[in-house]
Structures are given as C-alpha cells and as structure tokens.
Amino acid sequence: MNTIPLSNIDLALASLLVILDAVLSLVLRLKLERQILIALVRMCVQLTLVGLVLKTLFALVSPWWTGLAILVMVLFAGREIMARQERRLQGWWAYGLGTGCMFIGAGLVMIFALTTQLRPDPWYDPRYVIPLLGMILGNTMTGISLGLDTLAGQLTRERSAVEAQLMLGATRWEAALPVARGALRRALMPIINSMAATGLVALPGMMTGQILAGAEPILAVKYQMLIMFLIAGGTGMGSVAAVLGGVYRLTDSRHRLRLDRLGAPR
C-alpha cells in the first residue's frame, strides 16, 4: 500500500477549519468557541498519546499488555456511559451496569471475530484487537448510554401508567415492556441509520482510510461490511442487556417501581 505522507504543517492547515468553526461561533454568539477549542486540543493530545501507546503495543505483541489496554478502554468507555446519563442509577450500578453490559456485548463480538473471520496469529495481536475493539466499543457505548438514559427518563415520565399496570396485577416486566421497547428503539437507531446510509450517503472512516492507503476498493468494502456487522451485533447485545438490567434495578421482586434508586436530575 502506498500511503501519502502527512506533515505537521498539513495537519496545522487542516486544523484551521476547526478554528473557523470557533470564529463563526464567536461571531454568531453561539458560545461554543471555548468548547470547540478545548475539544480540538483534547483530540490532538489524546490521539498523539494513543499513537505512541499503539506503537509500543505493536512492538511488544504481549497478551498481558493487550489485555491491559482492553481493560483501560472498557473502563473509560464505562465512565463515558455514566457521564451521559441525565439521571444515574445510584451506587455502583451507575458505573457497573453500563460497563458490564458493554464488556459482555463487545467481548462476545470480539471473540467471535477473532476466532472465525480474522484469525490473527497470535490471536491477541494488538494490531487487530485494539482498532477493532475501539470501533465496536464506541458504537456500543452510544447505544447503551442512549438506552439507559431513555429508560430512566421514560419511567419517570410514565410513572403513573406503569404503576397503574402494576396495581392491576401486571408483573414488573410486563408493566415496563413498552418503556423498555422505546429505550431499545432509541439505542439501536444510530446503528440502523449508519447501516442504511453507509455507501450511498457516506463512506465510513475505516473504508476511506484503507482506500487512501492503497487497498483495493472491494477488499475495503468487505472489511467495512464485517465491521458494521460486528458493531451492530455488539450494540444490540449490549443495549438489550443494559435496558433489561435497568428494568431489573428500577423495579423489585415485589413488582414495585423503584425510582428512588435513581439520582437527582443533573
């Protein structure tokens, strides 16, 4: 593959487009210029650090270092899920539910991909594991965070309807089913939209990167299709587990709604 080299000057020129966004925000008084610039600096620092870490991991090819990198990625993603909730579950559930479900969904999909389609040698080769996990985690994180946030919000707004069904003899699962369905629809909508628009409306980043690096377009398409399948599977499993776990936590064995287990709105 022939990769076009990028210098620091090239990147600096491209960054002017983001700075232009900040200038437009300042002119139009959107009050977003500070957030835009902070996000720009944060992205550059994070990506630079990630590049240095990946360079070291690729050189070591150690299952222990690869496992540590996976653990760190999952823990940080779990924190992002918790931070995006308007009303968090109280106690360790606030962090543990999203993190655990994401680990289950993304982990099962990763094992499936590494043992069937990709089969790298060794199987823990970070050149395959880390980028693949990053793409799956990012989308699974979005699905889980949307599902949990919608579930908590809808149960709060539909409290009277849910409690009325419970008083009429419905189980907690039956009473919460309409809300859970709504939460899952919202959780899965981003990946559904992404799959529907991929190719016709947008060329995904991985596919574009492979083509720019000189890969055959058909090969790049096959890899992108594989990634989308894996992302959809991880998002689906993680979101279903998180929403059902949320229903379990926000009700009890006596079939009562337990919104007292939610924190105050932020």
Plain-language structure description:
The model has no long low-confidence stretch (mean pLDDT 90). The protein has two domains: 60 residues, no CATH class; 200 residues, no CATH class. Helix 1 runs antiparallel to helix 2, helix 3 crosses helix 4 and helix 5 packs across helix 9. The protein is globular. The termini are far apart. The protein is mainly α. The protein contains nine helices and no strands.
Instruction: Specify the number of helices.
Output: 9
Question: What is the number of independent domains?
Answer: 2
Which whole number gives the mean pLDDT? 90
Shape: globular
Strand content: under 5%
Largest sheet: none
Q: Provide the succession of SSEs.
A: HHHHHHHHH
Give the radius of gyration: 21 Å
Give the termini separation: 49 Å
Residue share in helix: over 70%
Work out the number of β strands: 0
**Assembly state of the chains shown:** single chain
Structural class: mainly alpha
Low-confidence runs: none
